[in-house]
Amino acid sequence: MKDRRIIIYAALGLVALCLLLALYFFFFKKPFKINTPFIDNQRQAIVFKDVRYSGEKRGVVDWEIKSKVARKFIDKPIVEMEDIDGMYKPRPDVAVFFKGSVGTMDTEAEKGSVEDVDIVYKNSYTLKSRFMSFDFKNGITSTTAPVDIKGTKLTLMGIGLTADTGKETVRIEKDVTGYILTEKGRYRFESDSFTYFLKDSTYVLAGRVVMKGEDMNLLCDKLVVFSSNNEVDKVDATGKVRLISKGTIAKSEKAVYHFREDRIVLTERPKILKNNVEMEGESIMYSLSSGKFFINKPKTRIDK
Q: Are residues 77 and 143 in the same domain?
């Protein structure tokens, strides 16, 4: 009988010790709210409800994650979460909000992943993906899954994404499709990759780029879109540029689309081909409003 009581007391002591350890690790990582936990013996974890985690830089909270259910493992700094709602500040004046169904987090490394992700950026763009990995310490978010981005002026779909807050870039790795909405109309595009430079408000599409307007198709190796105040200012196309409009093909190594003037200027060995007639010039200008080409100092060659 005495031995049985000793065993019971020892078991109760072990349970109490586990609870104290779990509470210590949770409070060490600054959970703001914590309800009464219970032990998941099968998984060697302490289960909490309505938990909030946060991280700081220079005394300012730069990320936090709230979870309806969290399992903190006793023997490792891993937390499993359900019904996730979070916030991340890449800059003090910018907040990115995200939600997910389930996820895991390494509380020491401040790394983890979230499934069924829904992200809102500046109340202007939303991003959806099957899963997303995050590294709060290094400011990197990434996925290899398909992504779907929707905004007031820009819609994008592709496979794989890397957002680097240090470099202030967002990159879609491959199979990019989407469209840009401008005051001149809507332009569809396709490319191998897409990179957005937040600091300069520029978009770079690279590798087999196609940009389609109402009456013209623009093909090139690289397309740089410059914008300000959420409006496109100009587009630079370089590398094997092809401008196709109403049966006319214009070729060059560089073209600049000036949106305000509604014209495209082709330079660097530009030429036009129509009905077996090829014309070269120092530069070629295409007016989108009239649909006509204008050649500066033309030279003509007729193919028989």
A: yes
Confidence of residue 39 (pLDDT cuts 50, 70, 90): low
DSSP string, 94-157: EEEEEEEEEEEEETTTTEEEEEEEEEEETTTEEEEEEEEEEETTTTEEEEEEEEEEEESSEEEE
Q: Domain span at residue 212?
A: 162-304
7 and 41 housed in the same domain: yes
For the chain, the distance separating the N- and C-terminal CA atoms, rounded to the nearest angstrom, is: 111
Could you tell me the two tokens for 288?
């989108």
- Residue 253 identity (one-letter amino acid): E
Burial (CB < 10 A; 0-12, 13-18, 19+), residue 275, is exposed
State the residue for tokens 């779990």: 22
Write out the two tokens for 121.
Answer: 């950026």
pLDDT by residue (tens digit) across 142-181?
A: 999 999 999 888 899 999 999 888 888 889 999 999 988 8
Please tell me the distance from the alpha carbon of residue 82 to that of residue 103, in angstroms, as a whole number.
7
| pTM of the shown model | 0.76
Distance in angstroms (rounded) separating the CA atoms of residues 222 and 248: 22
Helices (H), 152-299: none
Residues 88 and 98 sit within 8 Å (Cβ to Cβ): yes
Model pLDDT, residue 37:
54
